[in-house]
Amino acid sequence: MTIRQLSETVINQIAAGEVIERPASVVKELVENALDAGATRVEIVTAGGGLNLIRVVDDGSGIAASDLPLAVARHCTSKLSDDIHDIRSLGFRGEALPSIGSVARLTIRSRTADATEAMEIVVEGGRIAGPRPAAANAGTQVEVRDLFFATPARLKFMKGERAESTAISDVVKRIAVAFPTVRFTLTGADRTRLELAAEADDEVGRLHRLAKVLGDEFPKNALAIDAMREGVRLTGQVSIPSFTRANALQQYAYVNGRPVRDRQIAAAIRAAYADVLPRDRHALAALFFSLDPALVDVNVHPAKADVRFRDPGLVRGLVIGSIRQALANAGMRPATSGTA
Ligand code: ADP
Ligand code: MG
């Protein structure tokens, strides 16, 4: 038996297996890149539930012509120096674009503010063409066509256009809550349409964005959360017990501005409402944690949505305690029961 180094394309396809699970993962990665580039406008267009086409256009910093080949090369990033503990951006792995290029047809067209013309680079199933001159405004346009054409096994797992479109819309809403000053539009070939205007950079703007995402009825039926425990600050909004959903999809959590999916936070929300909600009803919530980045690890999974808190018990206690307190203050549960 001989051991060989795998080809770059196969290496990228293996990474894509984790990073790019479905069309919504592509949208998430491309929108994160636009936000990391300082975009104030992000336009997303999809067709066929994102399997035929995903296009994300931003007005961010753009990519210099000489950097385009690096943008699609594995482990190349402009966001992380040599310290994995100092992550301030949504991206840091340098994996998304090469992964996407290995399983789809990827075109990146970009122009920095001071460049005289735009350049484009194309990656199809791992084969790179360009960079070559192209026409485009300042900023970046990324187009992904025929997702998973190069990995038919993954293509078979897709759930159908409707389900993929819903997942895309959920991803955009989730991230949009954390960036209220950015204008987002999402247009699908079907009737999907999401338009989120840029909001003011203040509390009113944040609440307004939340209402656009969770529904205009949400603010009237929500309680504010604001608590601090041992250096961990938790702010946000949670719904009152009479304003609930049949699933927990509208529970959003953010750690230092990054949308996360955390089982323990979800469990803590459930526990906080345990004696005021039936098991099959779920509160709506937007919870923002801010803490010293050294107390939380975001480098847990390639999709960057999982986190590990240094002290999970503290976070659980903070969620349960602050939600119960807010409910008690509003006279919606007895004030006497314990916190965690
Ligand atoms: P990461 O985001 O982890 O750095 P990606 O593969 O997503 O890795 O992107 C690689 C690099 O390409 C980024 O570090 C960034 O420099 C550049 N890039 C990608 N998308 C954009 C964009 N929309 N605007 C500006 N630069 C971008
Ligand atoms: Mg990225």
Automatic annotation (TrEMBL):
GO molecular function: ATP binding; ATP hydrolysis activity; ATP-dependent DNA damage sensor activity; mismatched DNA binding
Keywords, ordered alphabetically: DNA damage, DNA repair
Signal sequence bounds: none
GO biological process: mismatch repair
Domain of life the protein comes from: Bacteria
GO cellular component annotations of the record: mismatch repair complex
Domain called DNA mismatch repair protein S5: residue spans: 210-328
Record-stated family: Belongs to the DNA mismatch repair MutL/HexB family.
Function: This protein is involved in the repair of mismatches in DNA. It is required for dam-dependent methyl-directed DNA mismatch repair. May act as a 'molecular matchmaker', a protein that promotes the formation of a stable complex between two or more DNA-binding proteins in an ATP-dependent manner without itself being part of a final effector complex.
Protein name: DNA mismatch repair protein MutL
Originating organism: Aquibium oceanicum
Gene of this entry: mutL
